[in-house]
From TrEMBL, chains A, B:
Gene3D superfamilies: Aldehyde Dehydrogenase, Chain A, domain 1, Aldehyde Dehydrogenase, Chain A, domain 2. Residues 3-282 form the Aldehyde dehydrogenase domain. Pathway: Amino-acid biosynthesis; L-proline biosynthesis; L-glutamate 5-semialdehyde from L-glutamate: step 2/2. This is Gamma-glutamyl phosphate reductase. The gene is proA. The lineage of its organism: Bacteria, Bacillati, Actinomycetota, Actinomycetes, Streptosporangiales. It comes from the Bacteria. It catalyses: L-glutamate 5-semialdehyde + phosphate + NADP(+) = L-glutamyl 5-phosphate + NADPH + H(+). Belongs to the gamma-glutamyl phosphate reductase family. NCBIfam families: PRK00197.1, proA. Transmembrane segments: none annotated. It is an enzyme of class 1 (oxidoreductase). Catalyzes the NADPH-dependent reduction of L-glutamate 5-phosphate into L-glutamate 5-semialdehyde and phosphate. The product spontaneously undergoes cyclization to form 1-pyrroline-5-carboxylate.
Length: 416, 416
């Protein structure tokens, strides 16, 4: 491990120990100071960001990607406002999760405590730098940030401004750190920093997540890969099914809770598919369908790869199935365990689908797009976990904590 | 991956899908059938166990270890009784962890669901084979067991009897599987079976846990390594401190929640240490002490290795510290994050110690020996987690589950 990396990781570890016992008020004051500093230093951030944008342009990056990268005064104000909103959220640390008095009189409590040092590896947008830092600080954690090299100048400026702002508060400025270099090598150092980093959260596409999961010796929370399904059951209300499908697919196709695959029960295909295919076409969606879908309209022939795909675009894989069980098997085989929806009027079918689909979220007669910390009322989210350990689904502040058992006696001894 | 391993792992995976949606009653019936079968086939188990004992004897294993390995009718009855107790515990699956109606009318619930397939790698005693299987089945999980090769014949018999018993119930018999070979290689296959196995729980000493943590691509829950501390504060009630120290060290020295290190505040050393050293000696404890401890009695000189040691024997590392903060730093440096105790009459010192010690459990004026699922009222435990993700401290049935979000609407679409 490089000396540069160790220095930063150790500084974060020390800051974490200092930050963990802090009560809510100084953390909120620090977050507000960060928000104010970002606005005050807006011009400086925009100037740094211009370097990233120029570099991206030289490299021939698409205008859509450059727009994701770009920061202006209004976007910085929005980033600062998000930090203020995190300050307004309840502090998860210290919450008594369980507690009581044991038969022997020992008082037992399970308290929420910070995880310690959280590593975040992310792509693209520089707003994540600030969002992630704010959520980690609020939950009492230090954070090691490893962003995209394409946002290097912006991230460097943002982190320096945050650190300077923290220096005047009770939160140690070492609690927010950019991993040196922001290179592939620095990401690997983060993955191997077991003992210095308590948890690693990769935010990005499937290839980033997979490489972290494969290589990391630090415990990982997998986030965000969404191959979401809409299953239209034999008993579906067809109007409702079309609306849900269009919303799930087309309302915002680039996000992880957008639908990528449509499964239609054969019994409702005649009634549902002609209307669904018309509406999908009207919304600019390309359907990759099997032969039974092709019977109802123009489609691109589907491949097995399409069923695995997280398109994040106006594409949709589609197949007809002969039973709810066949739909469930398809979802268990090809899905990513993010969100899968059933549209049905049958209470029994809904119960069965909910029980058999093994995903972070299951939607009944609702769009998959609701799997989101904001929609669930969490106030903010660090990502959507698609794994089973620790946290599953949208992760808010409590998901950035661990717990500690505390028991208090008056000389209690164990006798057996 | 060997064909033998894949066959068993896939069978467990299929059984897990079938077992997950089962309600409590058939699971409890299956557990009672398992308990009855173990008793009925007692002679068969004892005969298989005799092969293990004979092999151990040929290999010159110590009588103490052989006693841990040995099964007789009374021990098998106790194992069966533990299975019946698991059947009597509440089913964690289906519990609504959080839930409510969102402002838009969407009904949102977070439900406990099984993890899926749990791998257990363990040493020594064959009773773990049955205990672990019972806890996994009750929480709706299939289990892949990889026990010690020293218990190969016993484990083979126990698993075959459990599978035969399950075959007559609604729980699929494939839900309990012994990993083929029970070798080092089979343990590695379990560690690499990402996608087939959802979580791996190593139960055993530090070297087992470390090798699993290092090599596994399957998510791991670290358990059981306990380098527990008793810190006697300046303000301690000295009688109470001696009693707690002796209980923590000597009541059962071979377990992970026994104390391994004593830290004494300098201000109480004169009053506490002479009595503590006398009492430790009377209980047969060898003290590995620093110079300041040696001032009060006969000790073996302590090394840094002693401060890291999990003795699991009648040995105790000991040092005098000049402040609570120095004690905390010692614990953070050398401890294993299991359980650390403070003995003090000062409310302020207790609060500070609880806040600063970053361990799964912190005891105030109580023996470290209470960190235990049974003592905490969990009814049973699969182990004591010393990691921060997912579960920390004693793990009961709820800790063997994940969660699933379910939301139900009437055609709810997202508009922003």
């Amino acid at each position: 491990m490089s000396e540069d990396f160790l220095k930063v990781a150790r500084a974060a570890r020390e800051a974490a120990a200092e930050l963990a016992p802090l009560p809510r008020a100084p953390k909120d004051r620090a977050l507000r100071a960060v928000a104010d500093a970002l606005v005050v230093h807006s011009a400086e951030i925009v100037a740094a960001n211009a370097e990233d944008v120029e570099r991206a342009r030289e490299q021939g990056i698409s205008e859509a990607m450059i727009d994701r990268l770009r920061l202006d005064a209004a976007r910085i104000e929005a980033i600062a406002e998000a930090v203020r909103q995190v300050a307004d959220l309840p502090d998860p640390v210290g919450e008594v999760v369980r507690g009581g008095t044991l038969p022997n009189g020992l008082e037992l409590r399970q308290l929420r405590v910070p995880l310690g040092v959280i590593g975040i590896i992310y792509e693209g947008r520089p707003n994540v730098t600030v969002d992630a830092a704010a959520l980690c600080l609020k939950s009492g954690n230090a954070v090691l940030l490893r962003g995209s090299s394409s946002a290097f100048s912006s991230n460097t400026a943002l982190v320096r401004i945050m650190q300077d702002a923290l220096a005047a508060t009770e939160v140690p400025s070492g609690a927010v750190q950019l991993v040196p270099g922001q290179t592939r090598e620095s990401a690997k150092e983060l993955m191997r920093a077991r003992g210095l980093v308590d948890v690693l959260i990769p935010r990005g596409g499937a290839s980033l997540i997979n490489s972290v999961v494969e290589e990391s010796t630090v415990p990982v929370i997998e986030t965000g890969v969404g191959n979401c399904h809409v299953y239209v059951d034999a008993d579906a209300d067809v109007d409702l099914a079309v609306d849900i499908l269009i919303n799930a697919k087309a309302q915002r196709p680039s996000v992880c809770n957008a639908a990528e695959t449509l499964l239609v029960h054969a019994a409702v295909a005649d009634e549902f598919l002609p209307r669904a295919l018309d509406s999908l076409a009207a919304h600019g969606v390309t359907v990759h369908g099997d032969d039974r879908i092709a019977h109802y309209g123009e489609v691109v022939p589907v491949t097995e790869g399409d069923f695995y795909a997280e398109y994040l675009s106006l594409d949709l894989a589609a197949a007809v199935v002969d039973s709810l069980e066949e739909a469930v098997t398809h979802i268990r085989t090809y899905g990513s365990g993010h969100t899968d929806a059933i549209v049905t009027r049958s209470q029994q079918a809904a119960r069965r689908f909910v029980s058999l689909v093994d995903s972070a979220a299951v939607a009944v007669n609702a769009s998959t797009r609701f799997t989101d910390g904001g929609q669930f009322g969490f106030g903010a989210e660090i990502g959507i976990s698609t794994q089973k350990l620790h946290a599953r689904g949208p992760m808010g502040l409590p998901e950035l904590t661990s717990t500690k058992w505390v028991y208090t006696g008056e000389g209690h001894l164990r006798t057996s």
